[in-house]
Each structure stands twice: as C-alpha cells, then as structure tokens.
Design a protein that fits this description.
Layout: E1 5-10, E2 14-20, E3 29-32, H1 39-42, E4 53-58, H2 62-76, E5 80-82, E6 88-89, E7 92-93, H3 104-116, E8 120-126, E9 129-135, E10 141-148, H4 150-160, H5 182-209, E11 213-218, H6 222-228, E12 234-235, H7 239-249
Parallel strand pairs: 1-4, 4-5, 8-11, 11-12
Antiparallel strand pairs: 1-2, 2-3, 6-7, 8-9, 9-10
Amino acid sequence: MAEGVLLLDVGNSRIKWAWWQKENIPGADDVQHADSLSPDVLSKIELPQTPDKILASCVAGGEVRQNLQQWAGGRWQRRIEFLTSPASAQGIVNGYAEPERLGSDRWAAMVAARQDYRGYLCIVDAGSALTLDLLRPDGQHLGGYILPGIKHSTECVLATTGIELPAEEIVAPDSRKPGNSTSGCLASGALHMACSVVENTVAQLEDKVKQQVQCILTGGDSGSLSSGLTLPHVIEPALVIKGLAYIVQNSGETP
C-alpha cells in the first residue's frame, strides 16, 4: 500500500484534491480552473511530501489530461493514473453496456455512496452537468440521467433564444418561486427544473420499490440545489474524492 497518494477530482471548471494516507478518508481542497490548468492554478496544490501515487478522476478533455501529466512529471517525476469505470468492483455492478463510458466521477461517487449509505440511493452531482445515478441495495447500478447543470441551463436559454441579458444581470438561483424579471425567471426556472428532476426521479423509484430512497448531493451547485429541494437529502461536497480514497484503501495494488 502506498504511503501517500494524491487524489484528484478534475471537472470541467473545478479541480479538487486531497492527500490520502493509510485509512484516513480525506476531505478536499478545491480551486476553479476555468478550462485552463495554468501553473498558477496547479501551484495551489500543496502536499506534505512527494506522492507515491497519483490517482485522478478526470472528465475534462484530453488536453487537460496531457497538461496534468506534464505537471506531475515535472514536479514529482510521477505519472497520473486516470480512473476508468470498470464493469464491476467495490461491490457495485456498472449499469452501462459499455462500462468504461460511464464517467469516472460518477463511478467514484457511487463507490463512496455505497460505502457510507445503505438501501436504495440516488446520487446527484450538480456541476457543469447535472447527473443522477441510481443504486440498488445490492450495488446494482440502475442507470441514471445527464442534464445541463443549473448554471448552464440559463446559458443554454440565452444562447438559443433572442433573449438579451447583460452578464451582470445573470444571477445565481436562490428560490423556485416564479421570477418577476427576466434574470429572476431564468434563475428560478433553472433551479425549479433541476429540483423537479431529482424529486420526480426519487419519487418514481420509491413508488416502484416501496422503500425510501436516500438522496445524496455533491458538486459545486449542490448548495443551490439543496435550497430548493423538498425531499430529505444530504450533501457530500467531497464525494468523488472519498470514492477515490476508498478505491485506494480497498485495493492491494495500483487502482
């Protein structure tokens, strides 16, 4: 088992990292990278020592992966191991016909959720995209949904309609109540849509299985989503990082 592992959760607009040792399941630090992993961004990743391994979930493009490899090689002479979703592992059976095409962030989130919660689960990642994944108590992945994220829903409307709205008038959603301005309508509409999808998905599964479904939120917009949800839920800000830690902890060899 490695003495020290750097865990990376690289999204489309944010990178999270944590230092894992022994059986400690870490929290995470994070910084926005705005599609550019510049030296200034990567310099914020400070570690107590040179990592023995680096394990990453990366849903950004190939150029980002290349930049990360160059950075890790230049700084520590290490190669990053990029997680790929398997057909089955960690007590979970992947619901995809082509398992490797399931986002590694979604897989890692399911691993963490499966370790920490029981029963039927709905794992919601509210980031650039809004993803939902459903898990049975026995670990069978029931599939999920991918939609535009809360912020990108507003951007999609502006990009595909004739609505003109100055950037400074685009506001973050804070309520599902009907808006009384264009910016308010866009913000409330995006939040209302996201919450409705989550609530409807959970309600349908509960009706089918006649059991309560635990809803787990993660991602940069999980706070906004939480403010509008009417169903019980928990927020796990570092769910993907925790999943990566569990993968390392439960593996006797390189993940």
